[in-house]
Write a structure and sequence with these properties.
Elements (H helix, E strand, L loop, with lengths): L5 H4 L8 H15 L8 H17 L2 H10 L27 H8 L3 H7 L8 E7 L1 H6 L1 E12 L14 E3 L8 E8 L2 E8 L8 E3 L11 E12 L8 E4 L15 E7 L6 E3 L2 E9 H6 L1 E7 L2 E7 L8 E4 L15 E8 L6 H13 L20
Parallel strand pairs: 1-9, 11-15
Antiparallel strand pairs: 2-7, 3-6, 4-5, 8-9, 10-11, 12-13, 14-15
Helix pairs in contact: 2-3
Length: about 375
């Protein structure tokens, strides 16, 4: 720690108050405590650093010396005379025992939660719909495999008629206190009771159906009412349809993720749909009535004379219904004017006549060349 900034180690600015130093130390000590980071040497070193910094900054005399001369005044040992942390066994937690107790052991509330009711896990299912099913809604039946309370023992894990006793080792808490000696001193932590597995109870005769687990794996068919307007990426939560809880805990939820296959006719963007309508040059110039496919069926639409290729027309309310709403999106029709790739003589003459009638010169047109067949002489 020589030449290091003790304030920086605790995440503070120089001149921080005693309360600020104490709060910063508590927060970091909890985060990097060895019992929460077992096997993590980096966390252990960090824990040593924050304790060294706190030992200096929490002592008014040492803090004054540090503010004047820096960490060099403590020969890199936080004021322990070069002994490092060898003499740390008798370290007084400075009134922070309650903090470590709540996180690392002894807390009655934590023990009670461990062997109390546990909510079941959530599960997820992906369902694939056609474009039409998504647009109009559909009822589907899906098959999910989940953990359920054993029907034989009703989730107790004990064979019906057998007795269940309080675990003699942990006294029903589901946890046992373990005292460990570390380079930083003696710490008391808690671990799951190995005799009852954390349940706090010993079963005289485990259930023969679930082998004492209380839960079994079951496959269930569930009906899902999918509303109109869903789209790829939407997720439907089905409350209480997930895995069953333990020891009377509530069941989890089932999340149905929607995937929609693209339509061969329509392109969907949100609740709006898009479609292309092809017409000839003559119809685009003279105007015409076309039949347009919509999600609700075919409709007639009048294309005005002089419509250019790429023009977009809007059919209000002809899109996809908004989920759980009476409103609908719109449909957009893009007009594409088809230019013929080949012309017969009659069509060619008609176009020349059109050019002359429009005041255009036919000489600007690329001459039409007929293909020659046979061998040249």
């Amino acid at each position: 720690m020589a030449n290091k900034d003790y304030y920086e180690v605790l995440g503070l600015q120089k001149g921080a108050s005693d309360d600020e130093i104490k709060r910063a130390f508590r927060k970091l000590a909890v985060k990097y405590h060895p019992d929460r980071n077992q096997g993590n040497t980096e966390a252990e070193e960090k824990f040593k650093e924050i304790n060294e910094a706190y030992q200096v900054l929490s002592d008014p005399e040492k803090k004054s010396r540090y503010d004047q001369f820096g960490s060099a005044a403590f020969d890199g040992s936080g004021g322990f005379g070069g002994g490092g942390f060898g003499g740390f066994d008798g370290f007084d937690m400075g009134g922070f025992g309650d903090i470590f107790e709540s996180f690392f052991g002894g807390g009655g509330g934590s023990s009670r939660r461990r062997n109390g009711p546990v909510r079941g896990n959530d599960i997820e299912y992906t369902i694939t719909l056609t474009f039409e099913e998504a647009a109009f809604g559909v009822e589907k039946e899906i098959s999910v495999t989940r953990s359920e309370n054993c029907e034989h023992c009703h989730g107790s894990g004990a064979e019906p008629g057998s007795s269940v006793k309080t675990c003699p080792k942990c006294g029903g808490s589901g946890q046992v206190r373990v005292q460990r000696q570390t380079p930083l001193g003696n710490f008391v932590s808690t671990s799951t009771c190995d005799q009852c597995g954390g349940s706090g109870k010993i079963t005289e005769k485990p259930c023969t159906a679930c082998r004492g687990n209380g839960n079994t794996r079951k496959t269930r068919n569930i009906k899902v009412n999918i509303p109109a307007g869903v789209d790829t990426g939407n997720v439907m939560p089905l409350r209480g349809q997930g895995e069953h809880g333990l020891r009377g805990g509530s069941p989890g939820d089932l999340y149905v993720r929607i995937n929609v296959t693209p339509s061969k006719v329509f392109t969907r963007k949100g609740n709006d749909v898009y479609i292309d309508a092809h017409i000839s040059m003559a119809k685009a110039a003279l105007g015409t009535e076309i039949t347009v496919a919509t999600v609700d069926g075919n409709v007639k639409y009048t294309v005005p004379a002089g419509t250019q290729s790429g023009t977009m027309f809007r059919l209000k309310g002809k899109g996809i219904q908004r989920v759980n709403s009476s409103g609908k999106g719109d449909q957009y029709v893009k007009v594409i004017v088809d230019i013929p790739k080949t012309l017969n003589e009659r069509q060619r003459k008609a176009l020349y006549d059109l050019m002359e009638a429009s005041g255009e010169s036919s000489g600007d047109v690329t001459p039409h060349k007929k293909k020659l067949f046979g061998k040249s002489k």
